[in-house]
Amino acid sequence: MNLDAKMRNSDRRILMLLDNASCHKEPQGLTNITLHFLPPRTTSALQPCDAGIIRSFKAQYRRMFIQNRVDAYDDILDNNAVLKPFTIKDAIYMVADAWNCVKTSTIVNCWKKTGILPDYDMEEATLQVETEAQNDCNRLENLLSRLPYTDKETAEGTHYSYLFN
Q1: What does the pLDDT read at residue 57?
Q2: CB contact set of 140 (below 8 Å; sequence gap of 6+)
């Protein structure tokens, strides 16, 4: 059953916001879905994902990945183990876990920050999004400080750089 029929059967209506990408075509015959196309060149300002949700997700993923590699390094030191590889399957599970760590408040504040929703203090929402992003960065820096290398940007120039390949 398609979404429009499902909404019609549930006696519900939804508004779907779309950017103006050429692949977004308006299907004919929608009765319970209203499509609204955002103006051109406003994606970065109006889309909640671009207002901080993606940044939060990436920070969560990076934190988890660095934690994984720190744990792998610790296992090498503690148990004289061989480096456990980081597989595509590990990455897929980590993507799901990272998304689950994006806070509801981050998503709400990003919607507020765009100004799409009425009656919200955009300045306060922006401050909250920036504070959460800074907290994510601080947690990541804390993890990086636990690794035994001096160049925290690339881990190049040390024999530990293989942890990130």
Answers
A1: 93
A2: 59, 62, 63, 66
Question: Which run of H or of E encompasses 95?
Answer: helix 88-101
63 shares its domain with 30:
no
- Domain holding 111, by residue range, is 45-164
Look at residue 64 in the predicted model and tell me its pLDDT. Answer: 93
Query: What is the C-alpha separation between 73 and 84, in angstroms, rounded?
Result: 9
Residue 34 sits in the same domain as residue 57: no
Residues 153 and 85 placed together within one structural domain of the fold: yes
Domains in the chain: how many in total?
A: 2
Token pair for 7:
């909404």
Write out the E strands in the chain: 14-18, 33-37
Measure the CA–CA gap between 75 and 72, rounded to whole angstroms: 5
CB 25, CB 43: distance < 8 Å:
no
DSSP state of 159: T
pLDDT for 150 beyond 70: no
Q: What is the pLDDT of residues 113-141, one digit of tens each?
A: 777 766 666 677 677 778 877 887 787 77
